[in-house]
Design brief:
The protein has 330 residues and is an alpha/beta fold. 49% of the residues lie in helices and 17% in strands. Strands 5, 6, 7, 8, 9, 10 and 12 form a seven-stranded mixed sheet that branches. Helix 2 links the parallel strand 1 and strand 2.
Length: 330
């Protein structure tokens, strides 16, 4: 006996609605934005994270990566994260503009090596700094790497801080990087990464400072003559979302975002260690004039920056002392 058409229609509508609802649930899209370009450690770490999260959350959610400032500057993206219009951003130096204590990572020559950074992440970032970030509405997901920073310019090789006197050096947003270069006698110019190539090309700035892989991926060797190995700062990378956005995700998504960020730290360290020397060699082969700076001269010129941080940032001296004490292990 034929079923009434209305009953068939209703049954079909219910089934269609259920399938649509399931489809919508599976299409939770998580947007991840970074200012870095392909070829950089930051983009590589973000790609690895996206791959891991997507494999784990297949059928539940999908993460999409937007690199090269496609979603705006670091400042823009942090604001979008706070407002909930962007899920995840990957700031580095600019994090200190949210929580001043993150300026710790702008203290010159503070981080001895990646083993030291592991200890700092474990003993300082997660228990002390991450809760301060949450007070500002941001949820830290991981502690990755931007890299060890070097100076390039078009005027002269940089051997000592005196060689930086009067040079316009582009820096990322962040109070303490500016204070550092001022202490060295340079004129720091905060600027977004996406604007930097043209600024170097047109002489708006004389030089810049970045890890080797960023210098290479940004093609700065095409518009910069001198490459000076200063190793003045090790910069971590801090992928984060908003506390409100994080709490809105299903529990399975929350767990995946946090748990998959952990192995990416070691994966990133291994990649960065390998790429440091390789990128430097390629930059030299491309024609940049290379020199090693006088580390001790820079360390001596950096003391006023430490003193200022200890004075101006609440608990600043304690953070510095704790970080330096971890240099021998944790």
């Amino acid at each position: 006996m034929e079923k009434p058409r209305f009953a068939v229609f209703v049954a079909g509508s219910i089934l269609g609605t259920a399938l649509l609802a399931g489809s919508l649930r599976a299409e939770l899209v998580i947007q991840f934005g970074t200012t870095s370009q392909p070829g950089s450690v930051q983009v590589a770490s973000a790609e690895e994270y996206v791959k891991r999260v997507n494999a784990r959350l297949a059928g539940i959610a999908r993460m999409e990566l937007y690199h090269s400032s496609q979603l705006g500057s670091d400042k823009d993206m942090l604001q979008k994260v706070k407002l909930g219009t962007l899920d995840i951003s990957q700031p580095s130096t600019i994090t200190s503009t949210i929580t001043p204590e993150f300026g710790l990572f702008d203290m010159p020559y503070l981080v001895k090596d990646r083993a030291h950074m592991r200890c700092i992440a474990k003993e300082i970032v997660w228990p002390i700094l991450a809760p301060k970030l949450e007070e500002k509405g941001y949820k830290l997901l991981g502690v990755w790497e931007n890299g060890v920073r070097q100076v390039t310019n078009n005027k002269r090789p940089i051997f000592t801080p005196k060689d930086l006197e009067g040079l316009k050096i582009r820096i990322p947003q962040g109070v303490w990087r500016a204070k550092m270069f001022e202490a060295y006698g340079a004129a720091p110019v905060p600027m977004g990464f996406a604007e930097l190539f043209v600024a170097l090309q047109t002489g708006v700035v004389d030089g810049q400072e970045n890890p080797y892989v960023n210098i290479e991926s940004g093609k700065f060797h095409e518009v910069q003559k001198y490459l000076s190995e200063t190793n003045h700062v090790y910069t971590p990378s801090f992928p984060m979302t908003s506390v409100r956005k994080f709490k809105s995700y299903p529990e399975a998504v929350q767990k995946a975002l946090l748990e998959e960020a952990v192995p990416v730290q070691e994966w990133t360290y291994a990649l960065a260690e390998k790429e440091d020397g390789a990128s430097r060699d390629r930059l030299i082969a491309a024609g940049m004039q290379f020199n090693k700076a006088d580390r001790e001269a820079f360390v001596a010129a950096s003391k006023p920056v430490y003193e200022l941080f200890a004075k101006e940032v609440p608990g600043g001296k304690e953070l510095i002392d704790k970080a330096l004490a971890l240099a021998e292990g944790c």
